[in-house]
């Protein structure tokens, strides 16, 4: 058990690196991820000295298997898929990625942090979903957050491995080198609060299978209603074909970040995305009784921006739109880095 999805991904990457070093002798590791994959992989690449290849998604906003295959070489240790991806709520083609991983003898991590406590139950409820778990040959590790739809206390996630042979590379053991005695640690943190683990156990025991099924039924139904409502707003479009409870939407005729500012002023705080510029709503139980209010406010916000385009006082539209207007990705990165460093002084 870990402190969250980022740590679960960090551990899966570290474990894959060490496993592939043991298995193939790879000392200059590389990993390949779709551009929709979580930024925790960028952190892992920096932490563990792994070269990172980020491959554009295809026209359906899922991992481009052919593009990933083209990047595989003798130093590749890991490829990645999400179920679903954080930006757009779309499941990557895990079966195809599994075939690729198996054929090249490399690791495949599935980021199930967002979908781990929804997708299995949605499948039981009859929703047609592509395979995403260890039933897929080639999947070597999976991460899933209990503190999201599992409704456990914040700071609880899990990372799973196909077998013990892979998992053992997650552990750090100092047996004879330290004068302080034996030291074995399974996660990034040396000391971990037992209360969070107990809280996760209590949440799962309290809800049980039937509780998670009922929660999933409600939020999946509301997500479909919200998606349908957004599709009926002429100025907006849905990004891809969402599989779950995350719905991303953009506009070809309005500044979607200006819409976001208006929605924020109405009390709706959405995630701002890029490539393409868009917003997303992550539907939870809190939205079940207010989804009609959300759609009405969204229609009104679109109308306001259509009639009076331009940023509002105190709005963040100019900030969110800045990335798309940077001359180069490197220049944009430098600007953001300097901004954060200025705040940290």
Provide a descriptive summary of the structure in words:
A 6-stranded mixed sheet has the order 2-1-3-4-5-6, with helices on both faces. The model has no long low-confidence stretch (mean pLDDT 93). It has 11 helices and 12 strands. With 345 residues, it is of the alpha/beta class. Helix 8 packs across helix 9.
Features:
345 residues; alpha/beta; Aspartate Aminotransferase, domain 2; Aspartate Aminotransferase, domain 1; six-stranded mixed beta sheet; four-stranded antiparallel beta sheet; globular
Q: Tell me what the CATH architecture of the largest domain is.
A: 3-Layer(aba) Sandwich
Flag low-confidence runs.
none
Strand order of the largest sheet: 2-1-3-4-5-6
Number of domains: 2
Helix and strand pattern: HEHEHEHEHEEHEEHEEHEEHHH
Task: Determine the CATH superfamily of the largest domain.
Answer: Type I PLP-dependent aspartate aminotransferase-like (Major domain)
- Helix and strand composition category: alpha/beta
Counting DSSP H or I runs of 4 or more residues, the number of helices is 11
- Separation of termini? 34 Å
Overall morphology? globular
Number of E-type strands: 12
CATH domain class name of the largest domain: Alpha Beta
According to CATH, the fold-level topology of the largest domain is Aspartate Aminotransferase, domain 2
Mean pLDDT: 93
In percent, how much strand structure appears in the residues? 15-25%
Q: Summarize the main sheet.
A: 6 strands, mixed
Radius of gyration using CA atoms only: 21 Å
Helix amount: 40-55%
InterPro entries: GrpII_AminoAcid_Decarb, PyrdxlP-dep_de-COase, PyrdxlP-dep_Trfase, PyrdxlP-dep_Trfase_major, PyrdxlP-dep_Trfase_small
GO biological process, one term: carboxylic acid metabolic process
Family: Belongs to the group II decarboxylase family. Sphingosine-1-phosphate lyase subfamily.
EC number: 4.1.2.27
């Amino acid at each position: 058990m870990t402190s969250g999805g980022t740590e679960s991904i960090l551990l899966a990457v570290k474990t894959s690196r060490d496993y592939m070093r043991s298995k193939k002798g790879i000392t200059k590791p590389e990993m390949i991820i779709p551009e929709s994959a979580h930024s925790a992989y960028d952190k892992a690449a920096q932490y563990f000295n792994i070269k990172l290849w980020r491959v554009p998604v295809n026209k359906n906003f899922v991992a481009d298997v052919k593009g990933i295959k083209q990047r595989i070489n003798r130093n590749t240790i890991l490829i990645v898929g999400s179920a679903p991806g954080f930006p757009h709520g779309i499941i990557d083609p895990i079966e195809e990625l599994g075939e690729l991983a198996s054929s090249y003898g490399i690791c495949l991590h599935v980021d199930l942090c967002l979908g781990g406590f929804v997708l299995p139950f949605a499948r039981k409820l009859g929703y047609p979903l592509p395979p995403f778990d260890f039933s897929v040959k080639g999947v070597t590790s999976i991460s899933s957050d209990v503190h999201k739809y599992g409704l456990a206390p914040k700071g609880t996630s899990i990372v799973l491995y196909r077998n013990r042979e892979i998992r053992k590379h997650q552990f750090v053991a100092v047996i004879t080198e330290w004068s302080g005695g034996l030291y074995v640690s399974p996660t990034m943190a040396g000391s971990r609060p037992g209360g969070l683990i107990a809280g996760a156990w209590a949440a799962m025991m309290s809800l049980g299978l039937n509780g998670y099924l009922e929660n999933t039924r409600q939020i999946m139904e509301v997500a479909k209603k919200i998606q349908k409502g957004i599709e009926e707003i002429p100025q907006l479009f849905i990004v891809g074909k969402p599989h779950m409870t995350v719905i991303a939407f953009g506009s070809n005729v309005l500044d979607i970040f200006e819409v976001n500012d208006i929605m924020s002023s109405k009390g709706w705080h959405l995630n701002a995305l890029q490539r393409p510029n868009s917003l997303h709503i992550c539907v939870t139980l809190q939205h079940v009784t207010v989804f009609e209010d959300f759609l009405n406010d969204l229609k009104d916000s679109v109308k306001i921006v259509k009639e009076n385009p331009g940023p509002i006082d105190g709005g963040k539209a100019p900030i969110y739109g800045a990335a798309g207007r940077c001359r180069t990705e490197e220049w944009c990165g430098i600007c953001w880095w300097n901004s954060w460093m200025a705040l940290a002084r």
